[in-house]
Amino acid sequence: MSTQRSAAAGPKARALGLGISGIILFFLIWEATPRLGLVSDRYLPPASEVLVRLGQYLGEAAFWQDVADTMTSWALGLFIATLAAIVVGLIIGSSRFLRRATHTTIEFLRPIPSVALIPLAVLIFGTSIESTLLLVVYAAFWQVLLQLLYGISDVDAVANDTAKSYGLGRLARVRYVIWPTALPYLMTGLRLAAAVALILAITAELIIGTPGLGKQIALTQSGGAISSMYALVLATGMIGVLINLAARIVEKRVLSWHPSVRGEVVL
Amino acid sequence: MSPLKRIAYFFGLPVLLIILWWALSFGSTNFFVPKPVELAQTLWTTWIGDRFFDDVLPSLGRLAVGLFFAIALGIVLGLLIGSTRWLRNLLEPLLEFFRAIPPPVLVPLLMLLIGVNDSMKIAVIISGAIWPVLLNTVEGVRAVDAVLSDSCRSYGIRGFARIRYFVLPAVTPQIMAGVRQSLSIGLILMVISEMFASSSGLGFTIVQFQRNFAIPEMWSGIVVLGLIGLGLALIFQFVERRVLHWYHGLKEITHDS
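^ inputs. structure came back:
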């Protein structure tokens, strides 16, 4: 019995072991590159030095203040963008006329890179948090809106007509037909938007100088505190991983009733 | 739908918005908001001429080179990692971590390692834009149809032919989805690398306008970036339709039946 179970758990455990050794291997190569003089340690400090610096950061209040600043603009921006996209998406999506009429405008506005708005943000808001919010909201809004519109156009016409003939009004149909169909798409949009929002939050801090981790990275770089800079880059990567994980967990939770998620559990 | 109606749908809202903008800014002397005609004139005088060759073309060149290498490397490495199980297990957590690093923080990092020059900006674009293509390819290779894979093996199709005629076509939809993300990340990184450390290029010029309070010029720069984004999206759509026409056709058939 026990041998059977270990055989079943074998490939998974081996994959995990390999994954961990991959990370260790990466840090060993990183450690060796400056030590062997392949790259000057003035530009690439050994991994151990950076990890020690990262450990020190974790005990500093100023570091956590920066993390809090970055996460505040991230969360606030993502929230505003999602709310706006849901409202706009449901209004546009509920009418064929609006969907057709707004198509070109959306297709034109969407590809404008949000970093193009950086000069505008500086001009209007200076280095306050609103600058970051402008960029984050603009970038995240389109991700959510587009997925939501895809989702709404995926609504089963028969289901919609059935609901109509059973006397469901416009609002009731949005609640009971359109919303459940569009929700998986919405969650995909939200997951994409969460990653994009972090990128834009850090970008705004890096380029404009609004408070947060990005600003610290720019400061440590220009101040020559190289191992601090690498430690902060690692920190932003970890935040990114955490956000991705959280987004996936939320997606699974919200869609626990949906066949695509239920199917995974059964299999 | 009649062609007239189609044209009305296509241009209706944009024209309405421009008229609204024109009407609202007609009497205003607001320094920050340019008038439509003024903006169009500035767009012409600012960007057509020397600046097109000195700033816009080099920026676009770097973007093209960076994206080309990001996509090519992403596909090749993705095929390699995806089809070798131990390699995939070894690298997957590491790649997930690299993807999660917000690419803009690589600008100061690569500036140190490479210096401020064209190869740094191209390296920034590659190092940010490669992940969606790479990870999507890996994911796609892993999810290829098992029956088709076995059929290939029993027909003795292996090596290069297997990749060319079985794996690559099967993975193309995922690759294209990755490329779409890579394009927008690449454009963002092109602008950022020039804003952060440069003395030429589109990003630098726009920030320069803003610092000198050349507001209409700044707005025209934003429009140029928007047009580039739009151009990239159109090129992508065109290529995707050609590369994936069989896939869209297949989806329509299975959808109908």
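The CA atoms of residues 147 and 188 of chain A lie 7 Å apart. The first helix of chain A runs from residue 2 to 35.
thumbs up if we can close this ticket
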